[in-house]
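[09:14] KT: can someone run the structure on this one? pasting the chain below
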Amino acid sequence: MARSITRACVVFATALFTAAAGCLSSGSAAAQVPDTVSVRLLAFNDLHGSLRPPDRMRSDVRQADGSFTPAGGAAYLAAYVSQLRSQATNSLLYSVGDNWGSSALESAMFHDEPTVELLNRMGIDASAIGNHELDAGLPEFRRMQSGGCSPVDGCMFAPSFGGANFPMMAANMTYTNGTPATLPFTVNMVEGIPLGVIAVTSSETGQTVSPDAIADLQFGDEVEAINRTADILDFFGVKAITVLLHRGDSPTKDGGPNDCNVESGPAKDIALRASPKVDVIFTADSHQQYNCEYPDPAGNPRVVMQGASHGRIVSVADITIDRKTRDVIREQTSAFNQIVTHDISPDPEIEALVDHTWSAAAEVAERPVGTITADLTRNRAPSGESTLGNLIADAQLTATTPNGAQIALTNPGGIRADLDFDTAGTVTYRQAYGVQPFGNSMHILSLTGTALKNALEQQFQPSFDGTVTERILSPSRGFTYDLDRRAPLGSRISAMQLNGSAIDPDAVYQVAVNKFLADGADGFSALKVAPAIIGTGSDLDALTALFAAGSPVAPPATDRIHVLG
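[09:31] RB: done, C-alpha cells below
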C-alpha cells in the first residue's frame, strides 16, 4: 500500500500546489468567485476495441419509448463527448474499464494499439482497469500503459507506440505479496478544487481471466478498497469523490437508458455499502444501461449508472461543489445516459483514424470463411444451450477428434458475438473472430465419468446474495444429460450419455475444452486437476475449419440437455 499511496500523494500534492499558486495570484478577483463550482462528469464503459459501430445484433439501443436505434462507433462517440463537454464550463472524462480485450478484429490485429490511440485523442482523464485489460497478462498490460513495441510482432500499427496518456487504476489490485500493483486513485483540479476518482476492478477477476495471465496478482474486496481509499482522499482534503466500479448489474425488465429496473446485483450491493464520502459511482462489466439513485450508508442519495457497452452510450453526471467545503451538494446532482446515435456528424479526426485502421485490416477481415442458413445466436434455450454455443462445441469436437477427443464443452462467456444471417449468408473472418476473439488454445482433458459430472455440477455457483449464478456449458453432439434445477446444488446432473450409452462413473473420457476452462476459470475448478493434451489448435481455428468443411451451416438443435420439471 505504501508505494501506491506515495505515488498517488505525489500526484495530489503537485496538483494542490498548482491550485494554491493559482489562488495566490488571483488577488482581489477572488471576491467575485461564485460560491459553487459546476463540473460535468462523463464516462463510458466496456468499449472492447469497438472502433466501428458493432454488428447489428448487438448495436441497437432501447430508447425511452421502447424503440431501438443504431448506436456506437468511435467517431460518433468522440463527437458526442466533444458536444457534451462543450456544454459545460468544466468537465472530466472517464472510462470504467475493458477498453480492450475481446476486441474487434481491426483493433486486436494491431495489439489494440489503435484503441489506445483513440482514447489518447479523446482526452481520457482516468480509466479503471477491467478484467479484459489483463487477458494477455501483466507484461502486455504494462506495455499498453507505458508504450513500446510488441516483443512478438513489433509495432504493426505505427512506427512507435507511446502507450496510454492517462492513469489506469484499480485500488483492489495487488501483487500476491500484498504490494499494490497500480495506482488506486488520481486527483484532478477544477477551479482550485480537488476532485478525486477511485477505480476498482472486480474481485472475481481471478475467475474470469486465465489464471496464468494473472498468476502474480490478486483482487481484493471492492467495498474495502473504496472505503480505504476514500479515507485517504478525505484525509488530504479531497471531498468530491467519484468511483469507477468495474462491476455491473442486470435490470430485471427492459427499459430505456435512464430507467432503473435493478432489484439486486453486485454493483447495487457495493453502492449501498460504499463510503458516504463517495458522491458518484459509474459502473461497468454487465453491458447494461441504467440510471439509478441509491442511498449511501448515511442515507444520502447517490447516482449509480452504467452506459451499455461498445461505445453506445455516454453516462453524464452534472455535479455542483460547494467552494467552501469542497464537497458535492448531492441534491443538486443530475444524471442522464446519452445514446451515441448516428444523427450527429462524426468526429473527422477519429473517423480518419478508424478508416485507416479498417483499411489496414480489411484484406484479412473481409475474407469469407463460409456460409450459414440462418442466424446463429447466443440466445439461451430453457436448457441454457444456444445454437451458436452448440455449433462451437461441435466445431471443437471435430477439430480435436483426431487427437482422441470424445466430448467437447465450451463456456458461454467465451462467445462474444452472434452471427447475423444476411442475404447471402456469408460469414467473414471478421465475424468469426468477433465470436471467438480470445485465441484460446484447445486442451483435451482425461476425466472420469464422476469428474465430468462434478464439472457439470459447477455450472451452478452460489452468489454473494444467496442466489445461484448459472453458467451452462454448451455440449457437443452425441453428449446428453438430464438437468433438474429443483434439486440441491451438487445433485442437479443425471443420466449422462455419450452416443446413447450411459457414462460410466469410473471410465475415463477425453473431453475437449478451451484453455480458459482447462485452467479452472469461471469457477470450473473440477477441470483444472485433469491431465491434459495440449497443442490441438485454437478455438477460432476450429470454428473457421467447420465453416470451410461444412458450409452452408445450419443452426443445430438445442436439445442436448434435457430439463426435468
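[09:33] KT: thanks! The first strand starts at residue 36 and ends at 44.
[09:34] RB: yep, looked fine to me
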